[in-house]
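Notes to self after the call with IL:
- keep both proteins in one doc
- input above output, always
- annotate only the second one for now

Protein 1:
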Amino acid sequence: MTMQNLRRLGGGAGILAGLAAAWHLLGVAVIIPSARLSLSAQESPHKYLVFAHRHQDMLSWINLPGGVLAPLLGLILLLAVADRLREDAPDWTQIGLALGVVGIIGFAVGAFIKQFGLGSLVQFHVTNKTGAAIAFYAVNGTANAFLDLGGVALGLGVLVIGSVMLRMNGYYGMIGSFSIITGVAQILSGLTPHRTIYLIASVLTIAWFAGTGAAVWMEAAAGAPQKGRASQPREDISMVMGRGAQVQ
């Protein structure tokens, strides 16, 4: 696979990751609460497991595309972004990629545990509510720990990648500024279990996936990097003119 194909694939994956993450946020913050399970109630074992027993298909349609597929698509985007930035800042790009991969893995594992780990407790809750509640806290706590790890690691990775983009011209420079904001929000979301911060960080991450993916895809579709080159030391025009006079 050529670099242009990787970047085109990564850009498309980033756009799809943004859509998948938006669907997951819509499901968690709007669809599930409209079915009478609020955000706070989703952390209650009896309320959640009773709801899951009645709406298993709904939870699967929300969690699988958004919680599991979005991180995998985001991983492809990170690989494409790292390939694009490696020529300008190889060391920092590798650090950002490594942190981002850890974050993506954290999100994917956490979502996988929430979908299948908690799902396995639904039938158990019918026969043993106390035992299922205890198991719920253990499984849900493990899932949330992975999700928090994902938020902190991905936030740090986006911060590093954003610091590289800040030194670039054109839309990459603008994405770099937005990356700093998104990275800070992700870190705060991972360290602070507050619903408002979670919602803000989720919206920013959705926009970052889609915006970065669109930028990488458009540049790859154009055939060669144009506006995104890192800023290089520029020669003063008087120096260039003086050099031309010496040649003459």
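Protein 2 (the one to annotate):
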Amino acid sequence: MKIIKIILYYLLLASTLYAGVGIISPLYGTGWHFSLASMYWAVFSVLFIGSDLWLHHKISRLIALSILALAYLMSFEYYLFCDEYRLVVHQGSSEKIFLADIGKFHKYWFYQGLLVAYLLLAIGVSHLLRRKKLLTNRDNA
């Protein structure tokens, strides 16, 4: 049963990351609209937080934090080179392509920051509760 919880946890994390990338990915006329990606991100992040509370596994939280940090750094790389991507994309295509503006990046970074803050808070509270339990058990012994 524990393996099913872990698989569900990482599937929801991947879905949250995929929906978050939909916020800053180029729009080629087809695919998700930015507001639809935000709605999907909200749904998947609520499900991810629920599965995190259900799983309550410290190592999985640390792995999720490291994955979110990598996604955060990759979005910075995309943001810094967005103008060059814009030039390359428009030279290679005659279709109308919409690349994300700075507001979309700020929204993406804010959303990812919310998940990181939740995971850090969950790790801290879990650690403090476990420490309090150990201290109480030691005092009673």
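Annotation: The first helix runs from residue 2 to 24. The chain has a mean pLDDT of 85.
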